[in-house]
Amino acid sequence: EKGGYDYFMLKEIAEQPKAVADTLLGRIGAEGQLTLDELRIPAQVLKMVDKVVIVACGTAFHAGLIAKYAIEHWTRIPCEVELASEFRYRDPILDARSLVVAISQSGETMDTLMALRHAREQGATVLAICNTNGSTIPRESDAVLYTHAGPEVAVASTKAFLTQLVACYLVALYLGQVRGTKWADEILPVVRDLARIGEEVERVLETMEPVRELARSLAGHDTVLFLGRHVGYPVALEGALKLKELAYMHAEGFAAGELKHGPIALIEEGVPVVVVVPSPRGRSVLHDKMVSNIQEIRARGALTIVIAEEGDRAVVPYADHLILVPATPTLLQPLVATVPLQVFACELATARGNEVDQPRNLAKSVTVE
Ligand code: F6R
C-alpha cells in the first residue's frame, strides 16, 4: 500500500506532480481561461465581493497566507487570512459581499467548520477548498473546489498542501478573470506557467539527494530557523511546522524583515538557518533584500541553507548549502520551494529515529478543539 516506499509521507511527497496536475485537470481551457463553472457561484456574486477572508488551521492556514498575496495582486480585492480558531471566537465583520474561503484537507476540522458556520450566519458566501469528497466542510459550504491529491495518509500534510495552493491560485485567477482585472497582461502568462508547474515539481524531486544528506548531517542539532519574505514567508512557516511535527526540533519561521526586531538575537555560531530566496527576476528588490539578510546572519555565524532559483548567482558566495529550484513567477514559487523543506523534515525525522507517518501527540484529523 506504501507503493515500495518506507513511509506514506515519502510516497505522498513523490505523488505531488500528479496531485498538482490532477487538481488543474479540466480547470484551464485551451485559451488559458479558467473554467470553474463547477463552483456554481453566480458571476454577479463574484463581481460584488469586496472582501475575501480565508480561514484554516495548520498547513492549510499556510496555504491561505500564500493565497492572500495572489488574491490581492491579481484581483485587488482586500484579503484577510485567519486561523479558524481565532476567527470563530472573534467578532469578525462580514456581510453578503464577503467571500469566506475555508481550506481543509480532511473537511472535518472542528475549528474550520465552526468558522464557516459563523461566516454563513452573517450572510457571507462560503467557498470550501477541500480534499475529501462529501465531508462536512464542503457539505455545509455554498460552493466547493475539490483538490485532487488523493487520500493523504501521513499525518504531516504534503501533497494536500501543494494542491491547496493550486486551488487557491485557481480561485484567485478566476476572480481576476470574472472581474476583468489585469487579465491579458498578467494573468494569462501565469496561467500558462501554472499549467506546467507539475513538471517543475517533478524536477525538484529529482534533485533531493543533497537535501537528504544535509538533513542527516543536522540530526544532532536542536534548533533550525527559517526565513522568508513575501510568499517565501509562509513557506518558511511551513518548513518550520514540518520540522516541529516530524523531527520534534525547535523550529521557527520568521519574516526576514523582522530579523532586526528580535530574531537576529537567536543567531549564534553554527545555528542552521534555511532561507527562502525569491526570484532575482521581476520584483528584484525582494531578492536583493534577502541577499543582504543572508549576509547579515552569516556574518553572525549562521550555517546558511539557501533555497534559490536556478541561475541565481548572487546568493552563491553566502550559501553554505545551496538548494536550487526551477524558475517560476514569484507568486508560484511556493509550489517548488516547499518540496525541499518536506524532504528535509522527513529525512531529519528518520535520522532522529522518529515515526514519520504517525508523529507523537498528533492526529490526522482534528475533530475536537
Ligand atoms: C500539518 C498538518 C496540520 C493540518 C491541520 C488542518 O502537517 O497536517 O497542520 O494541516 O490540522 O487540517 P485540515 O486541512 O484537514 O483541516
UniProtKB/TrEMBL annotation:
Compartment(s): Cytoplasm
EC number, as in UniProt: 2.6.1.16
UniProt keyword Chaperone present: no
Annotated organism of origin: Streptomyces kunmingensis
Keywords of this entry: Aminotransferase, Cytoplasm, Glutamine amidotransferase, Repeat, Transferase
UniProt GO MF annotations: glutamine-fructose-6-phosphate transaminase (isomerizing) activity
Protein name in UniProt: Glutamine--fructose-6-phosphate aminotransferase [isomerizing]
Occurrences of domain SIS (ranges): 42-181, 214-359
Main location: cytoplasm
Superkingdom of the source species: Bacteria
The keyword Transferase appears for this protein: yes
Catalytic reaction list: D-fructose 6-phosphate + L-glutamine = D-glucosamine 6-phosphate + L-glutamate
Broad EC category: transferase
Function statement: Catalyzes the first step in hexosamine metabolism, converting fructose-6P into glucosamine-6P using glutamine as a nitrogen source.
Quaternary data: Homodimer.
Record gene name: glmS
Residues forming the catalytic site: 364
